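Give me C-alpha cells for this 213-residue protein.
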Amino acid sequence: MLIDQNSTMTVIGVAGNRSEALALAASEQPDIIILDILLGDEDGLAILPELRGVAKDARVLVLTGLRGSESQRRAMLAGAMGVVLKEHATEVLIKAIRKVHQGEVWMDRLTMGSLLDEMTQAPEIDPEQTKIASLTEREREVIALIAEGLKNKQIGQRLFISETTVTHHLSSIFSKLDVSDRLELVIYAFSRNLAKMPRKATGRGNPSQSTPD
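Here you go.
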C-alpha cells in the first residue's frame, strides 16, 4: 500500500514463500525486490542468491525487524543492495528504494564500517569458511540432523517445519557448500565440525551406531 501510493512506483507482484518469489522474479523481472528477512517459515536471506540468479538486473532491498548488525551483514554479503528496518518511517523505505534503484547502497554506517574493516583487514580468507559462514542457523540444524541419519520427514518433525521446507534447505545447503549428495554433505560436516562424529559403542550389549546412508 505504501509503495502503490507513490506515483513513481508500481508493485508488480507479492510473494509469500520461496517458490512464489522465484516464480514472480523470473516472470516479471522487477527493477527492485523488497525481501522480508522472514519469508513465511523460511529464511528470506537463504533465497537471495537464487532471486538474483533468476532476475539478474533486479536490485534487492532487505526488510527486517532485527536491529542486530549480523543480519544486515549477512544480507550484504549475500548480495543485497540495502537493508531497511521495519520500524523506520515510510519515508525512509521510499527513499531507500529510490537510492537502491539508482545503484547506491543503503545501510547503517556501523554495519558498513564493519564490512569495510573485514574486507581490508583480512589478509587471507579460507573459501570453505566463507561457504560455512553463509549457512543460516536453520541450515546448520538440518546438517546436524542429516549427520544423525534422519530423513527429510523426520527432520521436518524434529524442527516443526514441512518436508518441502527441509528439501529447500537441503538444496540451499548443497549449493552453498558445493556438495552433490547427502553422503558428501555428511563427510563435509564431520570434517568441518558442523556435526559430531558418532561415538563407537563400548562394552557388551550396547548397540553399535552407524553413519547415515
